[in-house]
Amino acid sequence: MEEIFDGVFHWKAEHPNIGMEVGCHFVAGSGTAIDPLLPAEGIEWFEGRDVQRVVLSNRHHLRDAPAIAERFGCPILCHEAGLHEFADGGPEVTGFAFGERIAPDVVALEMGSICPEDTVLRIEAGAGALLFADSVISYGGLGFVPDNLIGDDAEGVKRTVREHCAALLDEDFEHLLFAHGEPLLEGGKSALREFVGAGGGP
Questions:
Q1: pLDDT digit string (tens) for 138-165?
Q2: I want to staple 45 with a disulfide (CB 3.0 to 4.6 A). Which of 7, 31, 41, 75 is the partner?
Q3: What is the pLDDT of residues 176-191, one digit of tens each?
Q4: What's the alpha-carbon Rg for the chain, to the nearest Å?
């Protein structure tokens, strides 16, 4: 676990289904775990940290949310467009809408491109951060997941992602965080502007 800025913790863990490390985050100010797999320190790391909620940036990021929710008696939140994923025997998940403040320091912003519920989370800590679900990844630069994971109209989805990213440039942020990839803690707004202007990066 690493505190990467002002009460925001980042860690990586290997996802059991895809065999790759993914990014997980905890916003200490509001006790918000985002897309969590359990860290190397175990679920005990969260003890005494007043966990209030687990937020999924899209429906595919359930990961270890049920274990944390059960341990700390807190809700799991996902954008309402993704709730069907949990309707048939899944854990109890509460929906939110784009534009909603889902924690005192976290606001859900619309991406909805690679899947309808794909959410960008604006975190009001440090110089401000945007956290991306699956629409933008960060491995040696901002980019997209492989076309075969996007769907039939990969280029159309990429255009929509770029359009939504352009709108996000009006938000107040400096840091970029990712469910897939390395945090970008300096020059995030410039990097996102370049990503939009360059037609989507690598």
A1: 998 999 988 888 877 889 999 999 999 9
A2: 41
A3: 999 999 999 999 999 9
A4: 16
Q: What are the Cα distances from residue 32, in Å, to 51, 52, 124, 161?
A: 6, 6, 12, 26
Burial class (CB in 10 A: 0-12, 13-18, 19+), 52: middle
Can you name the CATH fold of 2-197?
Answer: Metallo-beta-lactamase; Chain A (3.60.15)
Strands 175-178 vs 129-132: parallel, antiparallel or unpaired: parallel
Measured CA angle at 77 (ends 71, 78), to 5 deg: 140
The type of residue at 103 is: A
The tokens describing 160, both together, are 């929509």
Return d(Cα 24, Cα 9) in angstroms, integer: 8
Taking the model in full, what pTM does it have? 0.94
